Amino acid sequence: MRVFKFGGASVKDADAVRNIYRILSGLPEKEELVIVVSAMGKTTNALEAIYRKAHQKEDFAPALQACRFYHEDIAQLLFPEAGSPVYADIAQQFQELEQTLATLQPDHWDQQYDQVISRGELLSSLILHHFLQSQGISNFWLDCRTCLRTDSTWREGRVDWTFTESQIQATLPAILQKQIIVTQGFIGGTEDGFTTTLGREGSDYSAAIFAFCLNASSLTIWKDVPGLLNADPKLFKEVTRYEEVAYQEAIEMAYYGASVIHPKTIQPLANKCIPLFVKSFLQPELPGTVIHDCQHARIAPSFILKQNQCLLSFTAKDLGFISEQHLSAIFQAVHEGRLKINMMQNSALSFSVCCDYDEDRVQQIKKKLEDQFIIKYNQPLHLFTIKNYDQESIQRLTQDREILMEQRTRLTFQFVCRPSETLAG
Ligand code: ASP
Ligand code: MG
Fold first, then answer.
1. Which ligand sits closest to the CA of 187?
2. What is the reported pLDDT for 422?
3. Are residues 59 and 184 in the same domain?
4. What pLDDT is recorded for position 218?
């Protein structure tokens, strides 16, 4: 059996949904398949904006209306006949969403975030389910919250592998003998019935969880790019596609922020040697990239950009040297504040970390440490990583940039700088 993951761009409008049908209709009749789908287009961002507004007691009604119209318009193009069951499902999702938004409590920001933001995947999977059904592809809509169990680390649920694996194995194979399954990426459920999310862009990870638990023969991630590229074509002028990449290499690229795969995706696949294909949904006949257990020569340098970074620096108030004790206090606070460190460096009198920027979390850390340290931070910044760098690639990327911090290992060159007009070197 196989797992397919379709991202937001592959369901962004009615034509995109029809394209998924086209891809599926080319498959052998008896193929056992689980389809994991992201929210449509930029829905997750839209829901985040709605949630933020609701939380701040601003008027969120127009944004919610726009989100609803977006989904209903797609449905109307896909289901011109009145009375399709899809309309009742969409209405119910928005009714439940409105109810959540109307009863927000001030102290449960992260928990309520998950209850709101998860609606995007529920909506997209319902629309895809009904559309495939209407086209004669019989399929089972699975509410993945019943089997993909996480703890209650809101916005970044940690998977309960034991429960999840046994639940998936106990229920899905029987369904798969008769029908393909359509389910949601990005979301899971807790023991007591709350919805969790797995971290932004987490649908790839969901797909890998299903592939792992079902011992799938492969996972295919369908993207709007022709495979795993050495740079994001939206940001860099010249890009090349890798044909074959070892798991280890792909894990590292994802870790440094290559946006093509969510960082947690590869590990479950590597543990069971399940190959991951990255393919273009626009040109499904092209080979794409295979990430699997293999050995290859050093591959072309890859250029990875993480945006929205901040550089935090801590200087002890007594101007003493940065000691292990200081470091321990800093790490403790960063850990509790759940900031993600992407690069760090210490000097005699200060310690600097480059993190994904989140104002609330930075303030929380400042509050905790400001008795002990002078804390400065700088944002928004860019963190660039060149994996498998050479002199030319460094030259190309660092040209004309003011570098605030840099680091180099045998295979990796990283630097933090201010955003500039030209991203591509
Ligand atoms: N829809 C979610 C997001 O945009 C998850 C995903 O697309 O992978 O973050
Ligand atoms: Mg996405």
1. 1
2. 59
3. yes
4. 98
